[in-house]
């Protein structure tokens, strides 16, 4: 336990220096343990486990581009993302881990107590057991506070879900050297730091938002509206029945058709110079890495990873309605999601893909709605702004600018059919049912739900090509 976050940062720096890490780019066709399957060209592991990279054919998408093909990660097994909670002196603390992932831009970030695929925790790799796993598999001794199957990044995963869990224990828990106990308030402060609290921790903490004490109203209108938005049964523009009907109608309108195809047959993608890349240089590439990590369950392995071609922007527009903060939520067609439609942030895209001349190729579709309102927001309207990493186990240097942008009260309440206004409490209630909010929305829900009372300093505007 730490007296303050300055003490945590000293501990975290020590843990980063205590182990040896190395990530080396390796051509896909020379990746140890992996091969391009004869006939299909699919990237597969010699055990047939972990995951594979295949092709996806998309038709009638209902998005700006109606049809395309792409590589996609197929990982049918569920992983476990679990946070252990224990009270010390009557104050709940979360057990988090300083964990290396090969795709993290800074290698080590704060991960949940347990972050493991089934292949890992059943030790297909023949390595060491996963610490604290016994708290998250039956029979367990603690009390389950949150347990839901949640989706992963559906642009890059096909029908992938992980079990998100929060378990409270009263037992004595031995503290391993790369783990630490943090209070919710300390986590809230750390969430203001770029690339520190990893995506897996953020998605699990979205299930903890309803377990925390609502924030006290601050001295400004935004803080007061945020506190009002926490209240169950509080004033909301739409009630739960109306929101469920809106969501069901969006699913009913969805025409998306998708099927897995051989990776070698994906149009406009090709293997060259040891990576699989799009002909226009947009979207992402599939690359290979060789990893060395002295404190992981196995100390060395190789794997393919997806590397986005540019930085993403993920943002909620927020508006006060009769003193209660509402968020503009999108019913987004997610090509790889199990249910095809999930609740998503107002804006979720790579702006460079929609900016003329940035990548030197024709634009793939119309500019996303509300993107200009987010990128052009005045600094005093930006309530949260930080660069956060996406999942570092499968994605290489994938970072997004996460933002909460407050709009004026004259901003229209009448929005396109695939959008609606929801309170923070309504989103908290939906997240607990699983597979309703996408992972980007859950991250933003955590960032907003853990927003400290003091406003965050505004970040300088970024160029459209890198925003």
Automatic annotation (TrEMBL):
Q: What is its EC number?
A: 4.2.1.159
Write out the entry's keywords from A to Z.
Lyase
Q: Which domain of life is it from?
A: Bacteria
- From the Swiss-Prot or TrEMBL record, give the protein name: Oxidase EvaA
This protein's species is Streptomyces albogriseolus
* Organism lineage: Bacteria, Bacillati, Actinomycetota, Actinomycetes, Kitasatosporales
């Amino acid at each position: 336990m730490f007296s303050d976050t300055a003490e945590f940062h000293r501990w975290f720096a020590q843990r980063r220096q205590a182990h040896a890490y190395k990530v080396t780019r390796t051509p896909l066709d020379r990746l140890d343990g992996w091969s391009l399957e004869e006939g299909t060209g699919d990237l597969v592991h010699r055990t047939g486990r972990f995951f594979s990279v295949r092709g996806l054919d998309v038709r009638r998408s209902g998005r700006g581009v109606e049809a395309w093909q792409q590589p996609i990660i197929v990982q049918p097994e569920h992983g476990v993302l679990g946070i252990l909670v224990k009270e010390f002196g009557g104050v709940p603390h979360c057990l988090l881990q300083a964990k290396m992932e090969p795709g993290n831009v800074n290698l080590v970030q704060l991960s949940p107590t347990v972050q493991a695929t089934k292949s890992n925790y059943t030790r297909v790799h023949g390595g060491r057991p996963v610490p604290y796993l016994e708290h998250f598999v039956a029979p367990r001794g603690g009390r389950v506070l949150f347990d839901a199957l949640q989706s992963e990044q559906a642009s890059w995963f096909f029908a992938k879900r992980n079990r998100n869990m929060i378990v409270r224990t009263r037992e004595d828990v031995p503290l391993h050297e790369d783990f630490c106990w943090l209070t919710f308030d300390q986590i809230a402060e750390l969430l203001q730091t770029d690339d520190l609290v990893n995506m897996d921790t953020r998605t699990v903490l979205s299930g903890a938002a309803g377990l925390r004490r609502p924030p006290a109203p601050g001295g400004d209108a935004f803080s007061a509206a945020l506190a009002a938005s926490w209240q169950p049964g509080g004033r909301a523009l739409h009630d739960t029945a109306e929101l469920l009907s809106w969501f069901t109608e969006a699913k009913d309108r969805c025409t998306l058709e998708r099927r897995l195809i051989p990776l070698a047959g994906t149009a406009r993608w090709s293997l060259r110079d040891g990576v699989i890349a799009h002909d226009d240089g947009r979207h992402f590439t599939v690359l290979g890495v060789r990893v060395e990590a002295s404190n992981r369950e196995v100390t060395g392995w190789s794997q393919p990873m997806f590397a986005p071609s540019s930085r993403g922007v993920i943002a909620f527009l927020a508006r006060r309605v009769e003193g209660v903060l509402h968020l503009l939520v999108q019913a987004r067609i997610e090509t790889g999601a199990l249910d095809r439609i999930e609740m998503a942030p107002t804006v979720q895209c790579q702006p460079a893909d929609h900016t003329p001349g940035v990548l030197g190729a024709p634009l793939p579709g119309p500019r996303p709605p509300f993107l200009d309102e987010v990128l052009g927001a005045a600094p005093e309207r930006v309530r949260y702004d930080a660069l956060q990493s996406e999942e570092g186990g499968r994605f290489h240097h994938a970072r997004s600018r996460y933002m909460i942008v407050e709009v004026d009260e004259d901003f229209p309440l009448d929005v396109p059919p695939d959008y609606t206004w929801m309170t923070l409490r309504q989103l908290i209630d939906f997240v607990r049912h699983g597979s309703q909010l996408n992972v980007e929305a859950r991250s933003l829900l955590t960032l907003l739900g853990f927003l400290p009372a003091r406003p965050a300093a505004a970040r300088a505007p970024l160029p459209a090509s890198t925003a």
